[in-house]
Amino acid sequence: MTWFNFALNDQLAPIGDLLEKVGGDPADYISNFYDEYTLDGNHYAVPYSRSTPLFYYNKDMWAKAGLPERGPKDWDEWNDEFAPKLKQTLDAGVSPLVIPDGTNYMDWYFQGMIWSLGGAYSNEWTMAMGDDDSVKAGQFLKSQFEQGYFKAAKDATAPFLAGQTAAILESTGSLGGLTKADKINFGTAFLPSPEGVEGCPTGGAGLAVPAKSKNQEAAAKFVAFATNTANTNYFSENTGYMPVRTSAIELPEVQKRMQEDPNYSTAIEQLPHTKKQDAGRVFVPGGGMRIGAGLDKIAQGATVEEVFGGIDAEQQKLIDSEITPKLK
């Protein structure tokens, strides 16, 4: 979320040529990740600890509710079938789903939801949260809290491990910790989204080289080393983050791991259904935090039109004054 403004203000070095000089093979990076770091035809970072949101669910609670062992196909199926059955069968105090609150990236998880429901944070450099479909998505989110189907928490993994929720929206990066905890029988699924709709954003962090560094080639050599085939495989295996090179996914040990652990394979299989996040969240200074704070207000009962309209106005002013004048 931070690379763009550094690149826009000439604080990062274009990294493609540097990697080629040191044998870093930029063409081997998974394009969904690598191409997100593009501005004016240059790449300004490489993927490192990259992730997507996943739908995690408690298989035992699913079975008790009579649900199939999979995630909901879309949010309509969740709202009409999955959530009501869970609410009817769960013990008192147990929530159907916990989502991280606005201080911990609810705006990231809602990015996929707003897409799947036909809306967007922005279209290129024009804010779109006040559009009808975006408002409807916000109203859907609000209804989930009102019906008791959603609950927001600073850390969604804690109530999941404690058996206080049947499902969570969390990062791929949480997979390693949840698996090692070995406290519950859980599965993972794609984010709910209608067939043919890209309803999942990517996330995580990358590596870049400062523009004013006197050791750019040495820095690029380290970047290439930290993200080479062996190291991205090792990092992925031990954390749950995704391999960032095509050659790593093709490794026999990775293919074997995907076959033996369906939870691990979910994010990799979901990758073709992802797309680049809206500029209104990731490129506007403070955009994600601003949207997250607004979503917290909606979860607490605020009017969607008022909150989304206010965010649009504030963000568009920043775009027009601080970003578009610098774009080539």
Tell me what the structure shows:
The chain is α+β, with helices and mostly antiparallel strands and 328 residues long. The strands form six sheets. It has a three-stranded antiparallel β-sheet with strand order 9-4-10. A hairpin with a 2-residue loop joins strand 6 and strand 7. The protein is globular, with a radius of gyration of 20 Å. The model has no long low-confidence stretch (mean pLDDT 96).
Features:
two-stranded antiparallel ribbon, 13 strands, 328 residues, globular, alpha+beta
Give start-end ranges of low-pLDDT stretches.
none
Tell me the span between the first and last alpha carbons: 20 Å
Structural class: alpha+beta
User: Which geometry do the CA atoms define?
Assistant: globular
Helices and strands, in order, run as HHHEEEEHHEHEEHEHEHEEEHHHHHEHHH
**Which range best describes the helical content: under 10%, 10-25%, 25-40%, 40-55%, 55-70% or over 70%?**
40-55%
Largest sheet entry: 3 strands, antiparallel
Overall mean pLDDT score? 96
Our estimate of the beta-strand percent is 5-15%
Give the strand order of the largest sheet, numbering strands 1, 2, ... along the chain.
Answer: 9-4-10
- Using only C-alpha atoms, the radius of gyration works out to 20 Å
Total strand count, please?
A: 13
Give the count of helical stretches.
17
